[in-house]
Amino acid sequence: MTVVVLLGGPGSGKGTQAEILAERLGIPHVATGDLFRAAVRDASPIGLEARRYMERGQLVPDDITIQMLLDRLEAPDAADGVLLDGFPRNRAQAGALATALAERSSQVDRAINIEVPTDELVRRLSGRWVCRDAGHVYNESTNPPQVEGRCDIDGSPLVQRADDRPETIRARLTQQLASLNDVVDYYDGAGLLRVVDGVQAIESVADDVLAAVTSEAPGGATGAD
Ligand code: AP5
Ligand code: MG
Q1: For labeling, which of 7, 31, 54, 184 is most exposed (least CB within 10 Å)?
Q2: Residue 220 — very low, low, confident or very high, per pLDDT cuts 50/70/90?
Q3: Residue by residue, what is the 3-state secondary structure of the chain?
Q4: Total-model pTM
């Protein structure tokens, strides 16, 4: 089982990179933000609860988030591994993940922090458009679609995320970056962290992330030993 965690601030490119990496590594892309947005669309109990936090730019409480992620890990397509995007977001989530993986005789193999300065995060989120049907990600200045307003992949209309309004972008950045730093420290302490410069062309970031995932850990071992 291969478990890779993609870390980075809101707008750092986790979803963009996960789409590329999932294909290259042959493991599914599991994003808690995408799972929450699907639950909001379905108006399920989890969605109704999560929306109250998401629209304020806050983290959804751990009990809901951890259970949702653990349920997703039970799906057959996750048996050989997952590429996690947006989870864990704090130390409690990181601990719950480690426990769940240990029960499967597994562990996180690599945590990759995609580093992007805050002013660039604001710029990227302000210009982001996502496709309505599958959430494929575009940017009006850095990564535009071939046909304006339409997804290159499935042709569905491009829309803006509810939490990409300027005031919610500010709230996400002020309320979430501290716990991201805690998670970065957690994986650094475990010797699993690699840092990638996120301010490069999308393909160059992807190459660096792939190299970081497959690189040997100091001492010659790959992964968490
Ligand atoms: P989530 O959906 O995870 O949002 P996020 O972490 O804020 O990250 P984003 O999806 O906004 O950005 P990204 O890093 O994926 O960047 P992207 O690839 O789109 O979570 C949403 C909410 O759900 C949270 O606020 C919280 O409320 C809740 N939640 C989720 N998980 C949770 C958890 N574990 N615990 C508690 N609550 C949770 O790229 C951004 C833009 O930049 C795009 O326009 C893209 O085209 C462009 N871009 C990408 N790469 C580049 C590049 N190299 N150069 C130039 N432009 C680029
Ligand atoms: Mg994302």
Answers
A1: 184
A2: very low
A3: CEEEEEECCCCCCHHHHHHHHHHHHCCCEEEHHHHHHHHHHHCCHHHHHHHHHHCCCCCCCHHHHHHHHHHHHCCHHHCCEEEEECCCCCHHHHHHHHHHHHHCCCCCCEEEEEECCHHHHHHHHHCEEEECCCCCEEECCCECCCCCCECCCCCCEEECCHHHCHHHHHHHHHHHHHHHHHHHHHHHHCCCEEEEECCCCHHHHHHHHHHHHHCCCCCCCCCCC
A4: 0.95
